[in-house]
Amino acid sequence: MPDLKALVFDVDGTLADTEEVHRVAFNLTFREFGLEWEWTPRLYQQLLKISGGRERMHAYAESLGESFSWPRNPSEFFLEIHRVKTAHYARMIVEGKVALRPGVRRLLSEARHDGVTLAIATSSRRSNVDALLSHNIGAGWAAWFGVIATCDLVEEKKPSPAVYQYVIDALRIPARNCFAFEDTVNGNRAALAAGLNTIITTHYFTRHDRFPGAALVVDHLGEPELPFVAREGECWDETRVDLALLRRLIAGTPQLARRVA
Q1: Catalytic annotation on 12?
Q2: pTM of the complete model
Q3: Which of 3, 12, 130, 169 does the annotation list as catalytic?
């Protein structure tokens, strides 16, 4: 029977419900650059199917066809937009606009106390992660995690399993002994392709998506006074995702689906 050795967390939408802040930061930046782009919540929900901010902008520009006048160097143009957008995002985080999602700090603390390794696997930039966790955990947040893999280290974005493979290789822990925490279809696919078990915490932008292969799909990790609502998977009437529930789930890993439709 596999034992629980590590918890690997995505960041945006998983550790904190940051996607709306990202959307607002994008729109602020577009106006600064004179772009008549307005990413509505409905449009952003579709754009989230593409991992990476620069990749989303490029795909959106392509969808506009001839109505978008491409700059001489699109890569540098989108890089500069993304740099300014990241500054807006960091400012809003510091202003206290985003807290950790329910149950996140509780589970992180429980894992640290119990000796279960923590790691991060995200398609976001390290600066975004630092802004979020410095504000919510403190300046020493990085010491909580054995590996912190961002797109600064692993450029290939989800649904590629590359960032999860990087984490597993660095931790030297078998994937079957790990749970990945995700919020998107691409994240779920990436973690499963790397051999990890997955827990999905949905939010506004992913609440209607399907997550084949996930061990459990909930609306959040749960607190004593705020139980989660389970959408898929067996939770044995538990109301919080804790180490006891994860160990019960991991005991069934031979039966967990490994392929995503």
Answers
A1: yes
A2: 0.89
A3: 12
